[in-house]
Write a structure and sequence with these properties.
The chain has about 350 residues and is of the alpha/beta class. The chain has helices at about 1-10, 15-20, 25-40, 85-95, 115-125, 135-145, 150-160, 175-180, 190-200, 220-235, 260-275, 285-290, 290-295, 325-335, and strands at about 45-50, 50-55, 100-105, 130-135, 205-210, 240-245, 280, 305, 340-345, 350-354.
Length: about 350
């Protein structure tokens, strides 16, 4: 184990077999290794943005066992916002200081391409300076399949209609056997990676996620991260890696043994060590809780996402994120945790240091 620790300290690229062994380290030793990397990169800064999550529809063609948001199963209350509604939400968020709208939906087969891209175009025309982060690789795969388009054609429509960057959703876990159980029929891991490759090849940035804490193994998590590391070597297009903690309520996965906080923190730390070429590791407070996300800043994470304002997907499964956090509270929480709050834009340019 000392050999692996030395390799981490020397900034050598860690292999899959070495990464698995890092889980056997005690939490404090592992956390210190990751924290040293973080401090060398960012000092005591903790990044966030002022953003608004918009989830325009919960009607979904796919059936993912971990999802509590889709209206096709447990949730009988279907909704689909109009383009005017979506734009109105974006305008309201912008008036309250939001620099980004993060638009992620279910895979609704009833609305057509004009609904998706019309919303982006209208937001761009109304709010030329706001950053539009929209369409996961899973949504792109759905739209391409549903409307007989290539991935390239959907991506070109995104750019034409004002989308600036892609969120990292839909990755779940790349291990195909697990994927077949939790989200069969959704975009494959191979195609998720290909879609981000195509996006990066246009000079655009995206994030990457990993849903963990359900039925995946530690080996599956390491495999997932290494696949992302390899794509990053090729394209350099990922801004951040976001390990999403599985939410346990209102779904059909029936997980019995939930992650401990120690396992979550170890996974964050290993992500920082393993993903040497992805700049930022985000502890997305909507899935981890704000308290654990703040603690994760001492275990390799340097980002908390943002104020959110409103969130529907994770909160449907039990997360305490439905109404976001006020900016003043967010900043004070970071300060009280011993970090320097840094407001960033969606591409990690620093806007304000508090």
């Amino acid at each position: 184990m000392q050999d692996i620790i030395k390799r981490v300290e020397n900034k050598d690229e860690i292999t899959a077999s070495e990464a698995i062994k890092l889980y056997d380290l005690d939490l404090i030793t592992l956390g210190k290794l990751a924290d040293n990397i973080r401090k060398e990169m960012y000092g005591n800064k903790s990044f966030f943005n002022i953003n608004r999550h918009i989830n325009p529809t919960n009607v979904c063609k796919d059936i993912c066992l971990f999802c509590a948001y889709s209206a096709t199963r447990k949730n009988p209350n279907q909704y689909t916002l109009s383009i005017d509604d979506i734009v109105s939400i974006a305008k309201d968020a912008h008036s309250k200081g939001a620099k980004e709208v993060h638009i992620v939906s279910a895979h609704n087969p009833n609305v057509g391409l004009d609904w998706y891209f019309g919303a982006f175009k209208t937001i761009r025309e109304a709010l030329p300076d706001i950053h539009i982060k929209a369409l996961t690789a899973a949504e792109i795969n759905f739209l391409a399949t549903e409307y007989n388009k290539s991935y390239d054609e959907i991506i070109d429509l995104m750019i034409k209609n004002g989308v600036n960057s892609m969120p990292g959703g839909g990755a779940e876990i790349f291990a195909e056997d697990v994927r077949d159980k939790i989200c069969k029929g959704k975009v494959s891991s191979k195609n998720w990676i290909e879609i981000h490759r195509l996006w990066h090849n246009r000079g655009k940035k995206s994030n990457a996620t990993m849903l963990f804490g359900h039925i995946e193994s530690r080996q599956d998590r390491i495999d997932h991260m290494i696949r992302l590391r390899e794509l990053q070597k090729e394209t350099g297009g990922f801004n951040a890696f976001i390990p999403l903690v599985y939410q346990r309520e209102n779904n059909y996965l029936n997980v019995k043994n939930f992650l401990t906080a120690q396992e979550i923190l170890k996974t964050y730390a290993i992500a920082r060590i393993l993903l040497h070429n992805i700049p930022h590791i985000k502890a997305y407070w909507a899935t981890s809780t704000i308290n654990l996300a703040l603690l994760a800043q001492e275990f390799g994470c340097d980002d908390l996402d943002g104020t959110i304002q409103k969130e529907s997907i994770q909160s449907a499964a039990g997360a305490k994120s439905a109404n976001g956090l006020e900016l003043e509270e967010f900043v004070n929480l970071i300060k009280n945790s011993g970090f320097i709050p840094v407001e960033r834009d969606s591409l990690y340019n620093e806007l304000k240091v508090y």
